[in-house]
Amino acid sequence: MKVLVPVKRVIDYNVKVRVKADGSGVDLANVKMSMNPFDEIAVEEAIRLKEAGKADEVVAVSIGVKQSQETLRTALAMGADRAILVVAADDVHNDIEPLAVAKILKGVIDEEQPGLVLAGKQAIDNDMNATGQMLAALTGWSQGTFASELDVDGDTATVTREVDGGLQTIKIKMPAIVTVDLRLNEPRYASLPNIMKAKKKPLDEKTPADYGVDVANRLEIVGTSEPEARAAGIVVGSVDELVEKLKEAGAV
Amino acid sequence: MTTYGLTDEHTMIADTVRSFVENEIYPHEDLVERTGEVPPDLAQQIKQKTIDLGFYACNFPESAGGAGLNHVEFSLVERELGRGSMALTHFFGRPQNILMACEGEQIERYRDPAIRGERMDALAMTEPGAGSDVRGMKCTAVRDGGDWVLNGTKHFISGADHADFLIVFVATGEDDTPRGPKKRITTFLVDRGHPGFTIRDGYKSVSHRGYKNMILDFDDCRLPDGAVLGEVDGGFAVMNEWLYATRITVAAMSVGRARRVFDYALDYAAEREQFGQKIGKFQGVSFQLADMITEIDAADLLTLACADRLDKGLPANREIASAKLFASECLARVTDAAIQIHGGMGLMDDYPLERFWRDARVERIWDGTSEIQRHIISRELLRALGA
């Protein structure tokens, strides 16, 4: 079975995000970029499936600016076998919308015929949480979202989903689209031999036109603003004082 | 973000080591600072993770079982390790390259187990009476029957507390030269626990708590010819061939640590308010930050540039001395300024700033003091002119 893992290049989770002066988005110029953390979990899961003998090839794909190549190299260094880069934007600030991404991924699936797509549940930049679901609709494949456990067994997969207030376990037919949540696994570091090998692994470059997809944005960003600053806390001297303060604040 | 002269692969190596240090080293630093010890299971855990990642002994050639990193790549590894506590990063093992001089049975007994992480090594040169003046060493080995008998004391021996064997430099004779008597030096490999050889605790140092300096005593310690590394009386040749580049390590580690310290200073300047505004708005603070980052970038590029010279097979003695001198002194200025920006809080052990400041002090002393580096630099320039 071939596993396809879409990965997105996003602002590094450690970077303090700054909103651009005109409110059109956040400033990405000269900022450290990394693989979306949920996508890292997806890559890790795909590699584990391969190590367990349940998958025979892991293909990473990224859609965005040319620099997404670095993100794909990271996936290759973690252990993916090859990569596909779809150059869909020139400007790092141009974020390709989920529907366009899903349509391109549908095109990649038609060509590659994977048995499973493992994707992050959402990207930490715009938190859309839509691409996996849209892709399932476009392909007509089963979907298991927010996976915290995954067990692939021949024609079916058992997915434990993180839902509000608990866990839900479902059995789905393969091929399937599974989007992964934080607790599925802990991604590995790229090993030194794999970093050295990554450069030699194949990385194909494509364009949206190769898949007949128009990536023009349909959504308009009306404004972007900083979250409200949190008020400073206070240190209380006793439990009684704490209860009193909470009462004053109307919290108890 | 790209750095001049570095490839994606370089960046990936540096990023991987940096994540390792942030996730596997930082969380344990307070414990080491508080106790002055690295718990054995933690040491083993760091070592095993490093082996699993293929980074253990990454400075050794592939033919010997290492990862075969070149000098630039290895400097990046050292730079990122420099961010973390030395007591802990010690177990991200980089055995002494000098072990490549092993021959015959020494390969299976010392070199290969060191590369595989099964045995740890440490290097012993300094003596109470022989610091910068290596030739002043009093530790001797004399012929007795077919053996060598070692006597004397070594101190400031880093890593000896965890070492399974030591690489020891001792005097094996003296030649008369026009510039006075000159010691002949031979390198020996000696196992921990060998009769006549003891390792004991050294001094309590302000820098790098938990990264202990040990004292070695040789009392009629008898070693066979097979314990000689390289040639008899060839200690200087072995030193020059293999220890030549280790000063880059100090430069690279100083750069990594300086960047970590800088981030503390930058964040504090952006958050701390006095006189109704962020202190970073005052030029007295912001200009310090400007100077700090400029110096750090310069030290970083200078260090990588000498590593690149070594990779290209160019002479680099003067350049390495410049990098070691500049990077270690840059770290001193950066840690000092970072404390100044933090004010009184910078001196409290609630923040790691006071530790960075203490740790920085030794970098201007070990692996050749700043004065020795200045001597090397100026001598090389003037000698060419006959002065």
Question: How would you describe this protein?
Answer:
The complex is a heterodimer of chains A (252) and B (387). Chain A has 252 residues and is α/β, with parallel strands linked by helices. Chain A has helices spanning 37-51, 68-78, 98-112, 131-139, 192-198, 239-248; strands spanning 2-6, 9-11, 33-35, 57-65, 82-89, 116-120, 142-153, 156-163, 166-173, 176-180, 203-206. Chain A has one domain: Rossmann fold, CATH 3.40.50. Chain A is built from six helices and eleven strands. The radius of gyration of chain A is 21 Å and the shape is globular. The mean pLDDT of chain A is 94. Chain B is of the alpha+beta class. Chain B folds into three domains: 8-96, Butyryl-Coa Dehydrogenase, subunit A, domain 1 (Orthogonal Bundle), CATH 1.10.540; 121-241, Butyryl-CoA Dehydrogenase, subunit A, domain 2 (Beta Barrel), CATH 2.40.110.10; 243-383, Up-down Bundle (Butyryl-CoA Dehydrogenase, subunit A, domain 3), CATH 1.20.140.10. Chain A binds chain B through residues 30-32, 69-70, 73-74, 77, 189-196, 198-199, and chain B through 1, 8-9, 11-13, 16, 19-20, 52-55, 58, 67, 69. Chain B: Residues 122-221 form the Acyl-CoA oxidase/dehydrogenase middle domain. Chain B: Its cofactor is FAD. Chain B: It holds the Pfam family Acyl-CoA_dh_N. Chain B: Residues 7-118 form the Acyl-CoA dehydrogenase/oxidase N-terminal domain.
The tally of domains of chain B stands at: 3
Give the total of domains of chain A. Answer: 1
Q: State the major sheet of chain A.
A: 9 strands, mixed
User: Number of helical runs of chain B?
Assistant: 12
- The average pLDDT value of chain A, as a whole number, equals 94
Mean pLDDT of chain B: 95
CATH class assignment of the largest domain in chain B: Mainly Alpha
Structural class of the helices, strands and pairings of chain A?
alpha/beta
Strand order of the largest sheet of chain A: 9-8-7-10-6-1-4-5-11
Question: Stretches of chain B where pLDDT falls below 50 for ≥5 residues?
Answer: none
Could you give me the name of the CATH homologous superfamily of the largest domain in chain B?
A: Butyryl-CoA Dehydrogenase, subunit A, domain 3
Pfam families (chain B): Acyl-CoA_dh_1, Acyl-CoA_dh_M, Acyl-CoA_dh_N
GO molecular function, one term (chain B): flavin adenine dinucleotide binding
Domain Acyl-CoA dehydrogenase/oxidase N-terminal (chain B): 7-118
Enzyme class (chain B): oxidoreductase
